[in-house]
EF-hand domain-containing protein
Amino acid sequence: MTENTNQADSEAQSKRGSRTISTSRRTILKATGTSVIAIGGLGVSGAASTQEVDLPPLARDGNKIVDPSGNEVILRGVNIADPAEQSRKWRGQTAPETFRLATNESEGWYTNVVRVPVMPAFLAAGTRNAEPWEMPHGDDWGPALPGQFDREDVKWYCRTFLDELVELGAQRGAYVMIDYHRHYPVFHQEDHKNHGVDPNVWQCSSDGGEDWRHPEVCGERGVLWHGEDQVDEIWDLIDEQNILEAYDLTEDDIYLEPPEVSNALDEELHTFWEVVADRYAGDDHVIFDVYNEPTGPYGGDWGGPQRQAGDLSDPAEAPGDGDASNYDVANDDMKAWYDLWVDRAQPWVDTVEENAPGHLVTIGSPRWSQYTYWAPYNEFDAENMCYTAHVYTQDDLRPLSKYFGEAAEHVPVFFSEFGWIEGGGMHVDTPWMDCSGEHDGDCEPYIQGYEEFIENYDVHPLAWSFDHTYEPNMFEHGTPGRNDGAKGADDWMNYLNDETPGVWWHEMNQQMAGDRDTFAPGDEPYPDADNGKNDKHIGPGPIGGSGDETVEVGEYEARDTDDDGRYEDVTGDGETSHEDVNAFFEHLESDGVQNNPEKFDFDGNGEIGFSDVLKLLNEI
């Protein structure tokens, strides 16, 4: 996503040459002076100011999310802007106002989940209506390196902004997803010099280059997620996957975080979630989104002092002797990067679970939460673990059914950021969301793809973004602080944007109303939810199980598909089913079983016998 946080930025945008806008669904809605209030005979309630909804705890059941009665639930909603960002007077509205509109059924918004991004820069600013010089590096776009905030800052932020939104969710029937929102991109100053931005916007003098880590550098790409202890593994992967040669790089082109940054990031995550998860542990309707968009390192290009991340990713033809197709997200070699991510982030997930047991927990993945494909193959260990997926108009992540749908068949997936911008963003070219790829600026194929994906897969979609400034902005920008679309949320419906998901998601939201979005009451999660590993899970290591090790059982090659030391996949087909039980029973006395009792002692009594067959059957 792109965030534009400065008043001067948005005012500059309003001075752009006007675009020709064709007659559209938005134009029709504005002409009638109202929004659609009934779809397919489904009546819409009045202004939801008096809603009181008992939101029960939800649980993961396989790849589904279920209520306390075991009924499948689909969560659908939107992202709002950082509440501290919205406290700035020039923006014209507050987060509570925005939240109320986003959950107002009389305006056609059937939203049962709202994602709330919390940015480290605003945590560190520690003030409402922050001025640019009050931000960590003295300007809105400067890098918020780890270690800028402490526990008291997080508590202040919760009291000032989050408490009210959590309460609003309980009142208005919407789950609240609190999102630790470290993100890319934030830009080098020099990248804006040709985009018509007033140079007075920038408060620091350096233009990046070799000095990009200097405290006065104005902007950089996001912090890498890796740990100090993973650097050698990363260099091994760079060598094994021929990355330097494929992208015509030298070792000096590769940037990895120094220990003082990577260790500070680790401490920052624990600090944030120790406070936030503990504070809202008693609120069943709060979901914890552990990490928004880890960027690199991943297979391919994650940037460096002279290059921003993404500059070389997915080239049409790889330089050197490498093959660009080797670095596709779904290539088997790319799983190694995802495995590193799981190792790094598991302690952060543990901190959330320890402080708020039983809640839904979500997390992103490398490459701006685009490695969702690998989630089923190496799951995080948590009772109600779910995964996020972010995608805009990148052609190399199509079809959505492959890169995100296949994962959704095995694990719960929150499609928690998606959208497009016809013609590009306000200031910075955004080829990854402006439809400028293989469809030459035609956004309709991407829109159709979103519709088919949401219809065909049980994902939980949250459009980005229910705002007039965070792009793709579902409402027109207007001029901040003036009564033309940014004065207050009460008039936003007159400015619903048809060049982004605004008009489209408003209509889709109404069409989907009533589909698995009501919740059976209850104080405890569904007792029979299956929160174990999915049927595809094989843990870290190469595709196919724990390394290449198999055990010959009759005519089969048994495998350990979930890395627990037990070889439940007796037939070696990648799944555990009744066929495995039958094969195990038929070959119970075979040498492969009898000579490897630790691998087939499913009931844990130290012996191999018929009770192990029954135990394996009960696990299916």
Notes: The longest helix spans residues 151-172. DSSP finds 18 helices and 14 strands in the chain.
